[in-house]
Write a structure and sequence with these properties.
- GO terms for molecular function: DNA binding.
- Keywords: Developmental protein, DNA-binding, Homeobox, Nucleus, Repressor, Transcription, Transcription regulation.
- The protein has a domain of 29 residues.
- Helix content is 49%, strand content 9%.
- It is built from three helices and two strands, in the order ββααα.
- It is globular.
Amino acid sequence: MLRSVQTGAVTSSSRDAAAPHVVRMTPEQVAVLEAEFNKMKTLHETDLELLAAEMALSEKDVKAWYTHRIASWRRSQGLSDCFGII
């Protein structure tokens, strides 16, 4: 089952900032995302919506996973993980 966990201590300087949102994905969800990533490295908006709905995740969570995964893949290929940022 999918669980959302918020982490981070609240201090006087961080009260205004939102706590990071961490989604714990099941091994099955990660396997589906990895399989999709191996098919195509970038997701079209429609594919993102369908994939998120299929796995009962938010589009934001799927997009965040893809962003981290593509950065990791680029580093493993010896490329900059700052794709598109100059």
